[in-house]
Structure formats: C-alpha cells, structure tokens
Design a protein that fits this description.
This protein has about 120 residues and is α+β, with helices and mostly antiparallel strands. The chain has a domain at about 5-65. It is about 15% helix and about 25% strand. The chain contains one helix and four strands. A hairpin with a 5-residue loop joins β3 (about 80) and β4 (about 90). The longest helix has 17 residues, at about 15-30. This is Replication terminator protein.
Length: about 120
C-alpha cells in the first residue's frame, strides 16, 4: 500500500496529496522573513489501523498536523493625536531626529483649519 492509496475513496485527497499541501505551508513559513530561521517545523502524520474482530478487514483512520515557526514579535511606537473633531487617532511615532531630505508626515498634514502649509 502507498500513501497515495489512503484517502482516495469518495474522491478525497490522498494522504500523499495532503502531505504535499502541508509541505508547501512549511516551505512558505521557512521563506517568511518574519519567522525565526533556525526553528524546526514539523509535519506529523498519524495512521491508525483498526482491525475487524474477524480479522478479515481493517479500517485506516488518519490525520495530519503541521507545526510552523511563529512570527517574530516586534515593537512599534505609536503617537496618540487629538483630531480637530476632538476624537483620538493613533499614528506610528516619527523620530525627532531627521535625516537631511527626509519627509516627516507632519510636514504634509493640513493645519487645524484644513489648509496645507505652503512650501518654504
């Protein structure tokens, strides 16, 4: 018996095809730069054989489980800003130190009356 024979009844995907789907998920997880490169990934296949009492038939049950590397955590500073309507908005914090030629979002936001500042 081959893995490609298991699960083919009733036009379902075979265990081999399910493995290939899960392997693709693992490869995508490995290629994701947000995951830890050294973490191990796991594809676990369980095949359970249940014989009939007469020993002339058996039933196979199976499942497949994949464990992927988690996304790395990070940190983003946020500014809480009061809008002209009195509501609060959050925006990513911008460093107060500027690189020459760098644009700051505050340079292109409208004034309180909705007018954009003029070029200097």
């Amino acid at each position: 018996m081959k893995l490609s024979d298991i699960g083919k009844e009733r036009e379902q995907q075979s265990l081999q095809e399910l493995f290939e789907v899960e392997l693709e998920k693992v490869i995508e997880n490995i290629m994701d730069k947000r995951t830890y490169p050294g973490d191990k990934r796991k594809i676990q296949i369980n095949v359970i054989v249940v014989p009939k009492s007469e020993r002339d038939k058996l039933r196979l049950t199976y499942d497949i489980k994949t464990t992927l590397a988690p996304i790395m955590g990070g940190e983003t500073g946020m500014d809480i800003i009061t809008t002209i309507t009195g509501k609060y908005e959050t925006r990513p914090s911008i460093s107060t130190s500027r690189i020459p030629g760098q644009v700051d979002y505050r340079d292109v936001l409208p004034d309180d009356d909705g007018v954009y500042p003029e070029e200097e």
